[in-house]
Each structure stands twice: as structure tokens, then as C-alpha cells.
């Protein structure tokens, strides 16, 4: 029909004359080159051909739109001829899951692009099964549990479905998910979409944003969001404060984090133990013994009982600061408090003595441990072995080791034991400490090191 119209149009005699004013291009250019080259104004023409042309125009536009439209999803029940992996996943679906939810889960597990689009699948499910909010939540919970790659896409599509009855918390969960995966742009886009749909960011949403910015190392955005959080006019909870403290810790600014901790104490809000310990580690890493001690005291005031790991972090701070006396005092305090020190704690005290070149005090410390029947482990032995090597007194140590290894083969084990293993056994013997100490003091190579050291009047058992 279209080609017929094109051929007869130049020879037809319309009942109305053509306008003499400037010709306007016709909306029929797509019909053929002959019309495109000589535009004709047919707006006021009452030819019998006009309805036919209009019909062709509309028909071809509709056909073009249909051609561009994505094929709709065709709901077909999943049969037995599927891969074993998919069968296994389907068999593990919860027994109490409703039939409508299991029907969708089977489709999602076996979904591929050839079957259509995911929005089409969910739209078909909504139309056929008429789900309610609890059905959507059941689907999302199971997809999250399975760590299914389509979880997030299904969740975002669900937000737009009326039957899902989306609220602020649903958007917050997606924002938090993006934040956990450091997908800042997607999280910000989700928050923007939430606010465009009339939802207001609340304390939980903004806290999730702060946590995300903190993990990404973007302190500026974290601070801006924290100020926005304060403008809500609601009392902040421990999570909101804790997220900002962690942001300062990750930015290498524990002092500002401690200021927020004091602000929390003023409002009688206790931070989580993980926040206290993270702040303690931040001070310990840089060797700020005063800051570490303040946080350690705050931990106890908050009612969090310290353990050997917490004490080890404080010992490390004193060791890095070169305060061996305070390190030893901390060790004694934890011992009196009933906290059994680990081998790492012993090693940290020895490292603190090493930093100040206090070998005699270190040996006295080891003798005290022997009296308390505390076993010296590999880490503490390695600290001593490396220390002796740097002092150049390895020969003296080897002499004492050889002397006692001969008479202690049963305790020392095989001849192939390492020096650290032999240290571990021999350092438990008080007589070994005394002989080793005497060997070091009489060594000419070590006389310059012990000069000026105040020695005890006598050395005896």
C-alpha cells in the first residue's frame, strides 16, 4: 500500500489548491525519496488519500516501537532437565518457604539472559502470584543468605513495586550493602533516589553513610555527614558516635576520636568494646604511651574487663616509647589481677628492655618468671636470641648452652633442636640465668655496654 501511494501522489489532483506560501516539509519523509526531495504541504488538503497516509504513518510508528520493545518474560515452570548445581541450590530452599516464594526462587536460580529480563520475571511473578511484603522479604533474605549475584538487583527492583511497601529502612539496607563493598557512587545514588521518592534520611541511614565514608578513607564526607546527623535534633546513639570515632582512627587522628569518646562519657553513652580497642591500638602503633594508658583506663571504667591481648597492646605502646619500667609495672599489674600473661606479653617486656639496653634487668625479669613457673615460649626466646646477636655475646651464650645441653638431653629433646627451642627450656632454669648473667658481665666484648650499670652486691641462688 505504501509504495502504491508514493507512485500516484505526483499525478493526483487534489480538490484543494496547493498553498503558495513557503512549503513546509511533510511528516511523511520516511515513506520515500520522492517525497523527501519535494516537500508538499498537505495540512489543509482534503484529498481522499490523506487518511490512508495517516494510517500508514501511525502503523509504521507502532511497528517501530514494538520492534524496539524488549521481549516479555514468559513464565514457564522449571523442569527436571537442569544442571546439578541448580538442582542442589533448589533442594536447599527452606522447607517453610511459601509456594509462591519457592516458585520465584526456582526461576531466579535458573535465570539467564536468554529467558528475558529480570524486571520482566519479577513483574510476571507479581502479576501471577500477587505477593505481599513478607514474601518479598523472604526472597531477599534467602538470596542474601545464598550470596546470590542477583540479590542487589532484585532488592532495587523490589523498592519500586507497590506490593513491597518500601520504607526508609529498606533503602538503608541497600546503602549499607553498597558501603560494605566500597561502592560509594551506588550508595549515594540509592540515597538520592530514596529522597526523591519522599523519604527522609534518618539517623540509621546517615550512620551507614558515615561508616561507608570511614571505610573508604574519606574523612571530609564523613565529617559533613556527621554534622548533618547532628542537625536532625535527635540524641545520637553509640553506633553514630562509634562510626565517627572509627573515621578519625582510620585517618590517623586518634586524638579527635578520643574527644568524641569524652563527649559520649559526658552523656553516659558507652562505646562498644571494639571502638575502645581500636583507639588503644591507634595510640600503641605510634608509640603514644600516655594516650594508650588513658584509653586503657577508660576501658576499665566502661566495665570492659581487659584480657592478655588488651594488655599486650598497652605493653607495646610502652615498649615503643622506651618506657621499660612502665612496661614491667603493667606486666606485674596484670599478673596480680589474675590475667595470665601470654608469651607475647613476655616478649614485649623483653623488647622494652632491649630498646633501653637493659639486659641485666631483662635477665632478672626472666628469673622472676621462673620462680612463678611461667614457661618461656618461642617468641620471647627469639627476642633474646636476636638481642644477644646484636650485642656480640653469642659465643658466651653458646658456651653456657653447650654446658647445660650435655646434661639435659632428656629435657632438650633431639640434637637438631633450634637455638630458640633450647632457650625455651634452659631459660626456665634459674641456675642458667645466673651463669648466663655472669658470662655476659665478664665478657670483654660487653664491658663497654655494662659500664655505668648498677649491679647487685652478690649473685646467688
From TrEMBL:
<feature type="repeat" description="PPR">
    <location>
        <begin position="272"/>
        <end position="306"/>
    </location>
</feature>
<dbReference type="InterPro" id="IPR002885">
    <property type="entry name" value="PPR_rpt"/>
</dbReference>
<dbReference type="InterPro" id="IPR033443">
    <property type="entry name" value="PROP1-like_PPR_dom"/>
</dbReference>
<protein>
    <recommendedName>
        <fullName>PROP1-like PPR domain-containing protein</fullName>
    </recommendedName>
</protein>
<feature type="repeat" description="PPR">
    <location>
        <begin position="202"/>
        <end position="236"/>
    </location>
</feature>
<feature type="domain" description="PROP1-like PPR">
    <location>
        <begin position="259"/>
        <end position="388"/>
    </location>
</feature>
<dbReference type="InterPro" id="IPR011990">
    <property type="entry name" value="TPR-like_helical_dom_sf"/>
</dbReference>
<dbReference type="Pfam" id="PF17177">
    <property type="entry name" value="PPR_long"/>
</dbReference>
<dbReference type="Pfam" id="PF01535">
    <property type="entry name" value="PPR"/>
</dbReference>
<keyword id="KW-0677">Repeat</keyword>
<feature type="repeat" description="PPR">
    <location>
        <begin position="307"/>
        <end position="341"/>
    </location>
</feature>
<feature type="repeat" description="PPR">
    <location>
        <begin position="237"/>
        <end position="271"/>
    </location>
</feature>
Amino acid at each position: 500500500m505504501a509504495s502504491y501511494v508514493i507512485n500516484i501522489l505526483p499525478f493526483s489532483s487534489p480538490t484543494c489548491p496547493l498553498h503558495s506560501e513557503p512549503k513546509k516539509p511533510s511528516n511523511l519523509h520516511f515513506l520515500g525519496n520522492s517525497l523527501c526531495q519535494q516537500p508538499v504541504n498537505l495540512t489543509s488538503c482534503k484529498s481522499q488519500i490523506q487518511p490512508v497516509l495517516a494510517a500508514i504513518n501511525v502503523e509504521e510508528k507502532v511497528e517501530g516501537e514494538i520492534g524496539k520493545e524488549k521481549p516479555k518474560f514468559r513464565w514457564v515452570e522449571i523442569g527436571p532437565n537442569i544442571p546439578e548445581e541448580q538442582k542442589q541450590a533448589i533442594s536447599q530452599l527452606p522447607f517453610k518457604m511459601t509456594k509462591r516464594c519457592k516458585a520465584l526462587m526456582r526461576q531466579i536460580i535458573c535465570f539467564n539472559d536468554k529467558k528475558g529480563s529480570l524486571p520482566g520475571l519479577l513483574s510476571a511473578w507479581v502479576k501471577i502470584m500477587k505477593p505481599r511484603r513478607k514474601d518479598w522479604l523472604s526472597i531477599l533474605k534467602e538470596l542474601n543468605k545464598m550470596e546470590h549475584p542477583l540479590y542487589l538487583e532484585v532488592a532495587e527492583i523490589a523498592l519500586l513495586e507497590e506490593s513491597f511497601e518500601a520504607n526508609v529502612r529498606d533503602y538503608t539496607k541497600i546503602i549499607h550493602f553498597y558501603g560494605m563493598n566500597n561502592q560509594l557512587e551506588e550508595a549515594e545514588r540509592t540515597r538520592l533516589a530514596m529522597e526523591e521518592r519522599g523519604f527522609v534520611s534518618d539517623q540509621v541511614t546517615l550512620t551507614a553513610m558515615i561508616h561507608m565514608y570511614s571505610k573508604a578513607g574519606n574523612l571530609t564526607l564523613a565529617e559533613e555527614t556527621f554534622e548533618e546527623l547532628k542537625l536532625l535534633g535527635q540524641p545520637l546513639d553509640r553506633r553514630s558516635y562509634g562510626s565517627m570515632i572509627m573515621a578519625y582512627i582510620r585517618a590517623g587522628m586518634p586524638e579527635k576520636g578520643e574527644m568524641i569518646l569524652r563527649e559520649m562519657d559526658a552523656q553516659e553513652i558507652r562505646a562498644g568494646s571494639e571502638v575502645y580497642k581500636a583507639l588503644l591500638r591507634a595510640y600503641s602503633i605510634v608509640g603514644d604511651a600516655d594516650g594508650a594508658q588513658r584509653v586503657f583506663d577508660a576501658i576499665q571504667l566502661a566495665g570492659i574487663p581487659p584480657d592478655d591481648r588488651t594488655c599486650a597492646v598497652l605493653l607495646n605502646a610502652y615498649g615503643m616509647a622506651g618506657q621499660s619500667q612502665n612496661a614491667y609495672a603493667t606486666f606485674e599489674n596484670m599478673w596480680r589481677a589474675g590475667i595470665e600473661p601470654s608469651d607475647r606479653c613476655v616478649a614485649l617486656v623483653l623488647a622494652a628492655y632491649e630498646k633501653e639496653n637493659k639486659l641485666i634487668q631483662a635477665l632478672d625479669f626472666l628469673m622472676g618468671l621462673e620462680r612463678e613457673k611461667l614457661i618461656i615460649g618461642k617468641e620471647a626466646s627469639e627476642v633474646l636470641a636476636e638481642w644477644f646477636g646484636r650485642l656480640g655475646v653469642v659465643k658466651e651464650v653458646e658456651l653456657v648452652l653447650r654446658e647445660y645441653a650435655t646434661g639435659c638431653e632428656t629435657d632438650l629433646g633431639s640434637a637438631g633442636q633450634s637455638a630458640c627451642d633450647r632457650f625455651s627450656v634452659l631459660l626456665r632454669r634459674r641456675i642458667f640465668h645466673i651463669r648466663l648473667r655472669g658470662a655476659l658481665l665478664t665478657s670483654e666484648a660487653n664491658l663497654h655496654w655494662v659500664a655505668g650499670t648498677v649491679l647487685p652486691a652478690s649473685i646467688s641462688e
